[in-house]
Design brief:
This protein has three domains: 260 residues, Rossmann fold (3-Layer(aba) Sandwich), CATH 3.40.50.150; 62 residues, no CATH class; 105 residues, no CATH class. It is built from 13 helices and 27 strands. The strands form eight sheets. The protein has a ten-stranded mixed beta sheet with strand order 1-21-2-18-17-3-6-8-7-16, with helices on both faces. A four-stranded mixed beta sheet has the order 22-23-25-27. The chain has a three-stranded antiparallel beta sheet with strand order 10-14-13. The two termini are 31 Å apart. The structure holds S-adenosylmethionine (SAM). S-adenosylmethionine binds next to strand 18.
Length: 504
């Protein structure tokens, strides 16, 4: 099978595993409406944001839509992922601009995308799908990249959407025709994934068909409108059923020959194919110059793969079209889908992404073409606005002081089992059970202050007061006073914080 290679590939292949876990800190002043709605806008580099989201959402996201920079050579996107390789270090902090034909902007784009796609794949549920907007600059590279990350058997479709038309001077010669479409690549996590294909409702077509069928069936060879079935054929249904059909005007003599014919209504629902040029790719309503998408387009994507309570993720959020589409679908077609958006640029995230979603939630005014304004009703809902903070572990490998019990519990459970804990967790030293193993955490005085180190040390009395589990137990704490043989007898593996906590 052909694979894609590029300069820097080796350096980024394991990068998604090396990125440290960070915490998300919510800003109440920038959050809107009911924070319990479960919607999230995260400001920060999606590389770190996606990693920070893993302990909450791994395997839970049903639909991912992303609209990364198309890499036209005219955009200013920044590659500053901290990858420790000489080639990439040379590129660090460079703005990727037009660089003649040296192709290095393609290497950089691929280096940027690879670890992000790896993290996105981990967030996607087994029955989920990912949709990626691209244009001709990276479409072919992106296909091969996705084949590698998601598996070529999980390629589903390439949808084409209309680009804005260009005017040229009369009789002007150009190098190539104007590209009439951009693409949306669709991959699923598993090749068993089913979708609800987009459809078009058309006028119903009625057709009249001959009422006979091949074969000999004596009970269906009665006389009808003065005819018997042709040789070696019988009527389609029994005589009683035929009478019922005549009463309902579903069976009649053929106007020309008089032979029986029955009415067939063809479905008026046509499945749309991958040609979505009925939709413009661009949206023009929010004056976001950096690739604002059409809400109807994103609604079509979300409708195709989500259930009424699915989580939808967009990690290149821009003006927040994906959140708009999710809120609109919930309101107009029913449901309680949640969105998670990530936007790198602080000013865009605050002033464009969050601001648009806030207006969409609470209502806003638009200018009418012929002057004056008109009110657009709010769709309701709310979101939390979060930022990325420090990594969970400092440069000496110690747990950062700001890390709360819930944060470390979530991290430990995820890094040990690959499973996220539920969004709301009960504060208990028994943080979760997976695969017949119970995980315990003694940290931040969870056992109360009367005991040694606030109960962070595993002693006989602490062990007695822990919630019981009869199978294998893995206990994280600052230290233990129990002997190895006692631990073995009790079915305990003890792991010391911070040394035995996986940090990436
Ligand atoms: C093409 S725009 C997306 C437009 C969006 N689909 C819309 O409808 O408005 C890409 C966005 O991704 C953001 N971005 C680029 N690199 C990013 C990164 N590493 N992490 C998060 N966001 C990033 C850019 O700031 C930009 O706003």
């Amino acid at each position: 099978m052909p694979t894609l290679d590029w300069i820097g590939k080796k350096a980024v292949e394991n990068h998604h595993n090396e990125i440290p876990f960070r915490l998300l800190k919510c800003d109440n002043n920038l959050s809107v409406g009911d924070p319990e709605e479960g919607n999230l806008i995260v400001q920060g580099d999606n590389l770190h944001a996606l990693k920070a989201l893993l302990p909450y959402y791994a395997g839970k996201v049903k639909c991912i839509y992303i609209d990364p920079p198309y890499n036209t050579g005219n955009e200013k996107w920044i590659y500053n992922d901290n990858v420790n390789s000489p080639e990439i270090k040379r590129w660090l902090n460079e703005v990727v601009g037009r660089e003649g034909e040296d192709l290095s902007r393609h290497d950089k784009w691929l280096c940027m995308m690879y670890p992000r796609l790896q993290l996105l794949r981990r967030l996607l549920s087994e029955d989920g799908g990912i949709f990626i907007s691209v244009d001709y600059n990276e479409e072919s590279n992106c296909r091969l990249l996705l084949d590698e990350v998601f598996g070529s058997s999980n390629y589903r479709n390439t949808f084409v959407v209309s680009r804005v038309k260009k005017n040229i001077k009369e009789r002007e010669k150009v190098k190539s025709a104007n590209f009439g479409h951009n693409s949306i690549l669709f991959y699923s996590k598993s090749n068993r994934t089913l979708i609800d294909p987009p459809t078009k409702i058309q006028e119903k077509k009625v057709r009249w068909h001959a009422f006979d069928a091949p074969g000999i069936r004596p009970t269906m060879e009665y006389e009808l409108f003065g005819f018997k079935p042709p040789k070696n054929r019988h009527w389609m249904y029994s005589q009683n059923r035929a009478m019922e059909m005549i009463n309902k005007e579903l069976l009649r003599p053929n106007p020309r020959s008089g032979k029986p014919q029955y009415r067939l209504e063809e479905s008026n629902i046509t499945m749309l194919d991958t040609n979505w040029t009925d939709l413009q790719e661009a949206g023009f309503k929010w004056n976001f110059p950096n690739g604002e998408k059409n809400v109807e387009l994103i609604k079509r994507i979300v409708r195709m793969i989500s259930d009424r309570d699915s989580i939808i993720l967009d990690s290149f959020a821009g003006s927040g079209t994906t959140a708009h589409a999710v809120l609109d679908l919930n309101k107009k077609e029913g449901g309680n889908r949640k969105f998670i958006l990530v936007e790198l640029e602080e000013n865009i995230c605050k002033e464009v992404t969050a601001e648009r979603v806030k207006r969409v939630i609470s209502g806003y005014e638009v200018e009418k073409p012929k002057g004056g304004t008109e009110k657009v009703e709010g769709l309701g809902g709310g979101f939390r606005y979060c930022k990325l903070t420090k990594p969970l572990f400092d440069e000496f490998g110690n747990v950062n002081k700001e890390v709360k019990f819930e944060d470390l519990a979530r991290h430990i459970f995820f890094s040990e089992t690959g499973q996220p804990l539920p969004e709301k967790i009960i504060k208990s030293p028994l943080i979760g059970i997976y695969d017949n193993t119970a995980y315990y955490l003694l940290y931040n005085g969870i056992m109360g202050d009367k005991t040694i180190n606030g109960g962070n040390m595993l002693t006989s009395s602490i062990l007695k007061s822990l919630p019981k589990y009869s199978g294998q137990k893995i206990i994280f704490g600052e230290g233990t006073r129990l002997s190895l043989s006692r631990l073995r007898k009790e079915g305990i593996i003890f792991k010391q914080i911070p040394y035995e906590v996986k940090v990436t």
